[in-house]
Amino acid sequence: MSKKVAILTSGGDAPGMNACIRAIVLVCERSGFDVLGYLHGYNGLLKQQYRELDARQMHNLTQRGGTILHSARCLEFKTDESARLAAANLDELGVTTLFVIGGDGSFRGAQHLGNFWDGQIIGLPGTIDNDIVGTDATIGYFTAIETAVQSVDKVRDTADAFERVFLVEVMGRHAGFLGLNGALASASDYVILPELFENEEKTLKDILTQLNERRDQRGNVSYIIILAENLWPGGIADLVSKLEQRTETEVRPVILGHVQRGGSPVSQDRLLAMKLGAHAATLIGKPITGIMVGEQNGQAVEVPLPLTWEHSKPLDDLSVNTMTLLMNNRYA
Amino acid sequence: MSKKVAILTSGGDAPGMNACIRAIVLVCERSGFDVLGYLHGYNGLLKQQYRELDARQMHNLTQRGGTILHSARCLEFKTDESARLAAANLDELGVTTLFVIGGDGSFRGAQHLGNFWDGQIIGLPGTIDNDIVGTDATIGYFTAIETAVQSVDKVRDTADAFERVFLVEVMGRHAGFLGLNGALASASDYVILPELFENEEKTLKDILTQLNERRDQRGNVSYIIILAENLWPGGIADLVSKLEQRTETEVRPVILGHVQRGGSPVSQDRLLAMKLGAHAATLIGKPITGIMVGEQNGQAVEVPLPLTWEHSKPLDDLSVNTMTLLMNNRYA
Amino acid sequence: MSKKVAILTSGGDAPGMNACIRAIVLVCERSGFDVLGYLHGYNGLLKQQYRELDARQMHNLTQRGGTILHSARCLEFKTDESARLAAANLDELGVTTLFVIGGDGSFRGAQHLGNFWDGQIIGLPGTIDNDIVGTDATIGYFTAIETAVQSVDKVRDTADAFERVFLVEVMGRHAGFLGLNGALASASDYVILPELFENEEKTLKDILTQLNERRDQRGNVSYIIILAENLWPGGIADLVSKLEQRTETEVRPVILGHVQRGGSPVSQDRLLAMKLGAHAATLIGKPITGIMVGEQNGQAVEVPLPLTWEHSKPLDDLSVNTMTLLMNNRYA
Amino acid sequence: MSKKVAILTSGGDAPGMNACIRAIVLVCERSGFDVLGYLHGYNGLLKQQYRELDARQMHNLTQRGGTILHSARCLEFKTDESARLAAANLDELGVTTLFVIGGDGSFRGAQHLGNFWDGQIIGLPGTIDNDIVGTDATIGYFTAIETAVQSVDKVRDTADAFERVFLVEVMGRHAGFLGLNGALASASDYVILPELFENEEKTLKDILTQLNERRDQRGNVSYIIILAENLWPGGIADLVSKLEQRTETEVRPVILGHVQRGGSPVSQDRLLAMKLGAHAATLIGKPITGIMVGEQNGQAVEVPLPLTWEHSKPLDDLSVNTMTLLMNNRYA
After folding, report:
1. pLDDT, greater one: C35 or D163
2. What is the distance in angstroms between the CA of the first residue and the CA of the last residue of chain A?
3. Out of 3.40.50.460, 3.20.20.80, 2.60.410.10, 3.40.50.1010, which CATH number does the structure's domain B143-260 have?
4. Is C216 marked active-site?
5. In CATH, which of 3.30.428.10, 3.40.50.450, 3.30.300.30, 3.30.70.360 is domain C4-140+265-309?
6. Which residues form the Phosphofructokinase domain (chains A, B, C, D) (predicted)?
7. In chain A, what residues touch D59 (CB-CB under 8 Å)?
8. Phi-psi region of B186 (alpha: psi -120 to 50; beta: other; left: phi over 0)
9. Which fold has domain A4-140+265-308?
10. What is the CATH number of domain C142-261?
11. Whole-angstrom Cα distance, residue C223 to residue C225?
12. How far apart are CA D281 and CA D267, in angstroms?
């Protein structure tokens, strides 16, 4: 009898989710498993909305952003009733393994479902935020950095032409990975991150000191500040106005927004998605469940789902040290 | 005796300004003219800040965004005193031809200067807005469309994944070229342009009608609206909130902002910049001044400066017809 | 009774063909016409292989390279027998208008079919070569320039690092449009085009003169030559070896090849494809047939098919003049 | 007294070399060291050709491909006489630390110099091939993958349109990293790598088997094969002709060539270059020499130079396993 497995994508979409779906489907097809894809995240699981997936449909999919299974929030999935309904739906179709591609909210949903369902549950880290413990990187993170960096590269053209201060807001609500690496790779001058933020006054003073010393040395210069979203108390407009007052310069805000979520995945996201997806599909039927497949030091690893969110993931020392040496100081 | 010519870039920077500078310098060098570049737009002309330009420095410049001569606003250039000072500065250096690369404000400055200076003044249309009469396109316009379109391509990934409404604000204060072509080329669903805007209520109704019919036919769908900046009375936040009320759907705003000004120029901007720049440099010493060099129907043309701003440039019929057939209606 | 129309793509694929298909389908759907797409060019017409096309399938298609209808050569379509079979097949399905998207070979096929079929035939110029008379540009041409230029931008990094001579072969069998504009926009140093090629010896001498003068002035320099394919008598390897002998320098060849055909269409190709496709669809049922829809000076035009291939399309003067001023000479 | 350090780039250029130079210079400037850059690799060291480097020149450099210090081969550097001359030149200028950015040939040169010079020698891995032991990745490798993958994405458009077989040759003379990851990330169908190549006959049979099964299942399909350069005994033309004979299909070759070396570095290369460069600059004056700074598992490490070339670097298991699951088999 052929085994049946299901996939869903949940939470914010991330470039590479489709490459991950493809990897799972290809490995399943060679192993003789049927695959179906639930639509709209957990909503499809509750409403029994799905489509069958086969290798043929996976052609030309790797390079596409977004997710062909669609995603959506599903607040009601927190209830026991919902989880029971989902379990019944999975059983009705004969699904024995469920792959959940998403972030920490999606993994909490998966863990909750595991309390009511006997099938195998395997998570795959898909989020641009890289805020999942247990994997060095998450699917979509590399593309989001690239998009942010290419945007800042463009902003720099105008910043240089006008020798102006720009403030660029990047995504990363609770985690500074995207901000830190986006700022470094774009050779920005200053970065304001949740992990390193002390208070408004100190930040403003730091910026002022650096900017003034730079101007003393080199005359008028462009100056680019990266700001993680939702971090500055009064919002980006408040920071713009405070900087304008203190620098007596025009400061222009740029909010990268949802552009950062989309786009054809860069190679590193495609590769991560394929490695994790293919490995995850080889776990079907093994006595392991309630885990996320991640990559650590070049190896595929299995991590119990709760470990992925119990602690917050720290910025890596090497990147922080590099930032300290190259940014946020007058020598940059 | 060798002739001396000067170049300045003024107004908002636009991709391709450097390619235009290079073309002028290369042709001047082969003709035996010396070239200097004033810095920071008209400010450099007032402060006699300039650098010498030669072919060697032009290497590897074509593909760079921004302007190596820097740009800046110069409000005081409107006075007669400033224009007289500029004329004296030009004469002091022996400059006999001045090239001004910029938009309509820059051309007004050039015309004003012409009232006080006997030298030859040649304008080149450099602005992402394409709002200059007398040339089919302006330097920087093609790149700005490309940047907007690539951003919307990315936004669509998320819009499709979540079947959500997105509202994307593009530049183009008074002219809808960037909005119209950006919306068409990105296969957006609706566009709100200064040239075609009647009132808020009509626009909202149009959108609602189209969106509802689309949903009736196809179920939930993504829906992308392009909005020209500074057009909607209450700003983009007001439109978001009105759309959310009426559609009972989440509507996400994306403001492309200054990212649209920068970036390596696409080929069509490089080519336009080179054609206009090279042609302009062949006019040195000819009895023609106070003109802009533009491209019309594949030919280089010379247009008196005042004609470039006296009337506003209309959207072309073919694009508007195409929009009518493909967008802003329920069949899109 | 609902009218039925058909589309096919033929000849080399070109970026923007899908955007053109979409435009035709959207306009047809709003006009109440059914649309089918023949597969594999004229082969599908002979074998009655087709798929139905509707607006829903057109979603997310604009930005995709290639053609969803596939393309192929079809040598046997030259026979009368084939054209009669095609006519019978079209009649069998009740097709009254056929759109052919392709190059001059495809248009000859369309014209041939017209001798045997009473239906309406409308051609759309889809080829990266831009070698179709009656339209300022062809669908796919702008993207091919962009791809060539971005490749040369990359080659220049190495050329500059090693101060080396590179020879880059671009497509454009009989027409130099891609070569000329690719060379200009990439700020290459020399270009060898079918329209301007005299003989090997003259070309070699020109290059040597320019290169030596450049070296005298600036010391070792990088030097990039663009070569149109199939032009140099002994092939690119022969030119490399002759240049190495005469320059006593390493010369590296780069053959861009099929990479130039693919890729997401740039905005200008999307826009051209949409304008022509939408306009073409408004011609359905009008007493006009055997024509190509093109764009001239910003207007949609209808051109009898034979006029598109009877004469070869000349390079435009402005581009050639710009080349003369900026390239192929020692001042570049 | 201020310390003086020197940098050179040697061997094939790689995207990110400039970002690495910038990182070293910024850290040196804050530490009060003077920095000079030797030109043209070891040739500049022999001819005492160099330029002074300061933070100001580093502006806007991170995103540029190639190397501002130029590179070149230097065969004569193998002699003792050359190394002695280089040592004398370094001493003459008072250089106490030399940074060498390059591949294994450059590191052998550095090691050789160390036999004749008492100063500190620090290598940084800059090569697109990733064939350096002691670091997880090399500077330039990520960009080269991206370039290869984007090229294959474009080739696929034509391959799909014509349902044709394409053979794409990528760089990587002795190491399959670029081929393996380029093939995986581009969702190619088959890859021929030095590490896994057995013989011609087996490879041809494998391809034929997979291609025929694919055609049996799905009808005509596109099929993309990645080939590492210099691997197939008779060259790519021989493989094309053998495949055409056996598949009775047209097979088109694409040689990516030098395009792979250039281009603005992707974020991962910029980040790696900055981390390694900044860390290397903190080692100045420490009692450690004759080492390469690499990154392993997210940490900066110092590896004795001979260890970087004594053994060949194996492909990582996870990538090879993923390849086995997703490519080179009939289920792909």
Report:
1. C35
2. 64
3. 3.40.50.460
4. no
5. 3.40.50.450
6. 4-283
7. 160, 221
8. alpha
9. Rossmann fold (3.40.50)
10. 3.40.50.460
11. 7
12. 21
Q: What is the distance in angstroms between the Cα of C58 and the nearest Cα belonging to chain B? A: 9
- Per CB-CB distance under 8 Å, the chain B contacts of C142 are 267-268
Is A161 part of the contact surface with chain B (CB cutoff 8 Å)?
yes
Residue A50's DSSP bridge partners are A38
CB of A158 within 8 Å of any CB in chain B? yes
- Does the beta-carbon distance from C185 to B136 stay under 8 Å? no
- Contact between residue C25 and residue C54 where contact means Cβ atoms under 8 Å apart: yes
Architecture of the CATH domain A144-261? 3-Layer(aba) Sandwich (3.40)
- Closest CA in chain A for residue B265: A154
Q: Do D321 and A279 touch (CB under 8 A)?
A: yes
Å between A179 CA and nearest CA of chain D:
13
User: Is 90 exceeded by the pLDDT of residue D215?
Assistant: no
User: Are C67 and C128 a contacting pair, CB within 8 Å?
Assistant: no
Q: pLDDT for A29-48, tens place per residue?
A: 999 999 999 999 999 999 99
Average of pLDDT values for A59-78? 94
Q: What tokens were used for A250? A: 């025009």
- How close does chain D come to A308, measured CA to CA in Å? 19
Q: Right CATH number for D141-261 from 3.40.50.720, 3.40.50.460, 3.30.365.10, 3.90.25.10?
A: 3.40.50.460
To probe the interface with B, which of C124, C188, C271, C324 has the most B CB atoms within 10 Å?
Answer: C271
A177-185 vs A141-162: helix crossing angle, rounded to 10: 50
**Cα angle value B322/B323/B326 (rounded, 5°):** 80
Establish whether domains B4-140+265-308 and B143-260 are of one fold.
yes
- From the list A145, A159, A241, the residue with the least C-alpha distance to B257 is A159
CATH class label, D4-140+265-310 = alpha beta
Q: Sorting pLDDT into bands at 50, 70 and 90, what band is B196? A: very high
The answer on pLDDT for A331 being more than 70 is no
| B254 contacts chain A (CB < 8 A) | yes
Q: What is the rounded CA–CA span in Å between residue B224 and residue B221?
A: 10
Strands B291-296 and B299-304, by their bridges, are antiparallel
Residues paired with residue A208 on neighbouring β-strands, in sequence order? none
State whether C318 and B29 contact (CB < 8 Å): no
Q: Residue D167's pLDDT is what?
A: 96
Report ipTM for this prediction.
Answer: 0.96
What pLDDT sits at residue C322? 97
